[in-house]
């Protein structure tokens, strides 16, 4: 696991040290995190007191009904958004008070994001898409190209590097997006419904790729609506109304139940 590099001086000065030491070995530590959206006079508690730890090489699926706060949680974890209150440490560093520039740098260096809709640049080849996040690295173009090519080979697309997104299948597009997420060697690979736009067979092959990356040491957290996708992970976190109501190894996890069932409003046993 890469260690977090020293942030720019401004960010380091702006940051207050955490009042309690971070749990040993946790690469993600959330404590009492909330995210409240204001829409007119209404306040939406998208995250309502989340406390969570994630360790190196964990493989976690987040499940829950639509609107339960899964994407909001991923956006906060991925430093795309900030918590309204609470504490979030990544690799032992409190992100809560980082400047926007420092947070963006953490995001670029530490987080690899994969989205349901791939989010590839249509005018560029697979290789160029994967090279894109390396633009901020100090490496020359040849090294960047070599790295991008190597990651595309790792995800099984060595023979598609010159193809543009519209010349690729859905599963191949998602592989390019995964390669792009991996090219900066992120601490965590995050995926929000990575199989949401794929048929069952292609979903399975994408999940097999996540399994392979996990075996190779990658820490992974993904959101899914589908039990069979979640079962690939080793741990399943279930959310409802901005809260985690169940969190346990996937082989002990019950199937997701509607909100009206017995565990509504509290942690299930
Ligand atoms: N930018 C926003 N402004 C206001 N409310 C928002 C915003 N983004 C999300 N919400 C609200 O926050 C809650 C959680 O949304 P979120 O997108 O995290 O749900 P989700 O679990 O990812 O749902 P889905 O499975 O449909 O993707 C919802 O009630 C949603 O309407
Ligand atoms: Mg969502």
Question: Quick recap of the structure?
Answer:
The protein has helices at residues 9-14, 70-77, 100-110, 126-131, 141-154, 170-182, 200-215, 227-230, and strands at residues 26-39, 42-55, 59-64, 85-90, 93-94, 111-115, 188-192, 219-223, 235-240, 243-249. With 269 residues, it is α/β, with parallel strands linked by helices. Bound molecules: adenosine-5'-triphosphate (ATP) and magnesium ion.
Please give a structural write-up:
It is built from 8 helices and 10 strands. With about 270 residues, the protein is of the alpha/beta class. The strands form 2 sheets. The chain has a 6-stranded mixed sheet with strand order 6-7-8-3-9-10, with helices on both faces. The protein has a 4-stranded antiparallel sheet with strand order 2-1-4-5, with helices on one face. The longest helix is centred in the last third of the chain and has 16 residues, at about 200-215. The chain has a domain at about 55-80 and about 100-250: Rossmann fold. The protein has helices at about 10-15, 70-75, 100-110, 125-130, 140-155, 170-180, 200-215, 225-230, and strands at about 25-40, 40-55, 60-65, 85-90, 95, 110-115, 190, 220-225, 235-240, 245-250. It binds adenosine-5'-triphosphate and magnesium ion. Adenosine-5'-triphosphate (ATP) binds near residues 39, 64, 66 and 67.
